[in-house]
Amino acid sequence: MNRLSQALRTTLRPLKRSRLFSALNLTLSTEVAGRTLRVPIINGIGYSNVAMQEEWMVDVLRRLLPHCEGAFVDVGVNVGQTLLKVKAIRPDVPYVGFEPNPACVYYVTKLIEANGFRDCVVVPVGLHDRTHIAALNLYEPADASVGGSIEPAFRPDEPVLRRQFVPVFSLPDALSGTGTPRVGVLKLDAEGVELEILQGAGDLLARQRPFVLVEILPAYTAGNAYRVERQRLLVAHLRDQGYRLLSVLKTDGNALRGFEAVDEIGVHADPRRTDYVAVPVEAGDVLRA
Fold it and tell me: What's the predicted TM-score (pTM) here?
């Protein structure tokens, strides 16, 4: 659980809405999974690491990481929210992150240095089904935008404020470049290209059998045929690879309530129903223990 004194929250919250926040540089301490970590805020980037609480993710990782035989591969690092949780729970697990936004890569490099994390690699590329140059569309003015996507059809109704051209790799090409021999957990938060990443993963799922954490944003309405069809294809791909899909159930306080096996994502508009764990069928009920 992340903790920041209420006084400091009260001070920083209104400042975040001002232009002065982008000039803010300081280092804060926060507690993650019972461990005190250092969080630098660089030009306003990194505040979400102390302001946002994702207790459910801490609980999910506590169940997964003891069974992690290999690296934790984080596709969509952003500002290191998952990195902090992984290293707080199991500092010995090798961490390999992929992030196409250069502002995020710079920040996470400083985050790793501030905490002295070992066995961490952050690669400044995105992932897709093939290696090429892609346009990263940014929909927010912040440099470390959380919603940037290389899939142009993912948010067709939102104006693109900025566009950056970034290299993207297939998962096998990216992992071979880092020398990662085995993947224990694969986390996908790629803003709409999770399907392409899995389709381009070759036989990695079949050979290495990692757990897969994946965010699947809602279709909201049945009329969003694009998202509905892609959800169907993603679930079918995981099923064909011998995986069961579990929906992460959360409490109103954003803590973990449990898991529910699902055969399809369905059409919904619930922001709490966006996170899933794909478990190899041979792993049984490891998450229910």
Answer: 0.91
